[in-house]
Design a protein that fits this description.
With 162 residues, this protein is mostly beta strands. It has 1 helix and 12 strands. The protein has one domain (3-161): Immunoglobulin-like (Sandwich). The two termini are 13 Å apart.
């Protein structure tokens, strides 16, 4: 199964900040997909290739490496990555380097929250419940710490192939 068959694409990264922009850092994003083998205590990661393709039931680790190739500091980097429709997000698996805030979307990246909520309309009124993490459609990492010149930051999450 290739990245295109899984349905992953880099949604992007942007910089948020205030004040005058004198120079814009060059941040390049690279996405790597790994099939996770072994146990939680001793996981073994195999990068996707023609010989290594995920199958139904496999866990995939998606890793985004943000490389600041410039001499400028990258401040407040925001990176998003979709959860492929052929997979289900694994609760608690999102991580990032440095001080990062992770939020999730259940509507294809239109809105984000630390814990997205679903509203169900019933005859007795609306019922609001936390969305099941397996229904998350997009993961967003908001970097609170700077990425220095010639430095990298890494963001990841796991998903289960349906």
């Amino acid at each position: 199964m290739t990245l295109s068959k899984i349905g992953i694409a880099i949604v992007g990264a942007m910089f948020l900040g205030t004040g005058a922009v004198l120079a814009r850092p060059e941040v390049q994003l690279t996405v790597h997909g790994y099939v996770v083998h072994g146990t939680a205590q001793t996981p073994k990661l195999e990068e996707f290739s023609s010989a290594v393709a995920p199958r139904s039931g496999d866990t995939i680790e998606w890793k985004v490496v943000a490389s600041n190739a410039s001499a400028e500091i990258a401040r407040k980097l925001v990176t998003t990555l979709p959860v492929a429709p052929s997979t289900a997000f694994v609760a608690g698996s999102a991580a990032g380097s440095g001080d990062v805030v992770v939020t999730y979307s259940i509507d294809g990246g239109k809105t984000f929250a630390p814990r997205p909520m679903r509203v169900t309309h019933t005859a007795a009124g609306d019922v609001v419940k936390a969305a099941d993490p397996s229904t998350y459609t997009t993961v967003r990492w908001m970097q609170a710490t700077d990425i220095g010149p010639k430095s990298t930051a890494t963001f990841s999450y796991e998903a289960k192939v349906k």
